[in-house]
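Support case: user asked for a sample of complex input and structure output to validate their parser. Sending the pair below.
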Amino acid sequence: MKAQKGRKSGRGGSGEDALRAQLETQLSALAGLGPRAEPAEITDAVESVMATVEGDLSAVNLKLYAEIEALSRFIAAAKSEIASVRPDEINTEHLPTATDELEAIVGATESATNAILEAMETLEPIGDELGGETGRKIADSVTQVYEACNFQDITGQRITKVVGALKQVEEKVDTLLAAFGEDAAAARRERTAEPKKKQISADDDASLMNGPSAPGDANVSQDDIDALLASFD
Amino acid sequence: MSSVDMNMHILIVDDYKTMLRIIRNLLKQLGFNNVDEASDGSAALQKLRDKKYGLVISDWNMEPMSGLQLLKEVRADSRLNGLPFIMITAESKSENVVAAKQAGVTNYIIKPFNAATLKTKMTASIGQF
C-alpha cells in the first residue's frame, strides 16, 4: 500500500490525490455494506472512478487514441482482405503457369520457324535448277520467307522481357506475403484443409476452356480422341 | 567487277539458332558460302583468334559476352582491330547505336531486317560485290 502510494505520488498532481480520496470514500462505503456488497455496486464504483480518469484525459489525447484505434481496425481489415484473395496463389500457381505458357510460345514458334526454314532450304535449290522466270520467282519468294522468319527472334526477345517483368511481380508479391505472413499462411492452411473441387460439366463452358496443353502435360493424340469418340458408339 | 573475295570466311554470332540459320541462308543467296557460327561473344572471340575472317555479323543481346563486349575486344586486339563488324540487333534506341559507334562498329542493322538491307550494309562495310 505504501509502495502504491509512492507510485501515485510519483505521477503527482492534485487530481490524483482527489481521485484517491474519492476511491477511498467509496471503498469505505462498500466496506460498511460488509460481505453483502453486491457486484453491481462494486461495478458502479469502478465505473465511477474510470469516468473520472477519462475526464482527466485531454480531448486531443482521446481523439488521438480514437484515430489509432480506427487505424488499427483498418489495417486488420486490410490484412484480412488481402489474405482472403490468397496472394500466395499468385506465386504458387498463376505466375508459374504464365511463365510456362510464354516459354511454350517461344518453343512452338521456334519449332515452326525451323520447319518453315527447312522447307525453304529444300525448295531453294529446286528453283536454282529450274532457272528462268520460274526459278527467279521461287528464289524471291524464298528470300521473303527468310526475311519474315525474323519474327521468331523478335518474339523471343519480347517474351523474355515479359518473363522478366513477371519475375519482378513475383518478388513484390513475396514481399507482400512476408508482410502479411500469418494471414496468408492461415488462408493457405484453410485451402489445404479444403481442397478445391473443380466441377466440370458439359454445360460449364468456362471450366472447359483450358487452352493448349502445356509441355509436359499428358497430351492426347488424335488416335486417342478417335478411340474415345468411338467408345460412345 | 567485285572487289570482294567471295570465298572470305564470315563469322555470324547470335544466341538464337533460328537467326543464325536465316542469316546463313541469306549470305548463301548473296554468294557467300564460307560461314561459321558462334552462339555468344566469348565463343566468337575464340574463333576469331583461331582463324582469319573477313567479316563479323553479330547480335548484341547475348550472354555471357554481349555483342558490344565482343566488338570492344575485337577493337582492342591488334590482330583483329581492322576487321569489319556489323551489328544486327533489336536494340534500336539511339544510345545503343551511339555506344556501338563509339566502340567502333562498322555498320548497324535493326531487326527485323531484309536481304536488301543486309546487302547494302555489307557493301558499305566490305566493298561492292
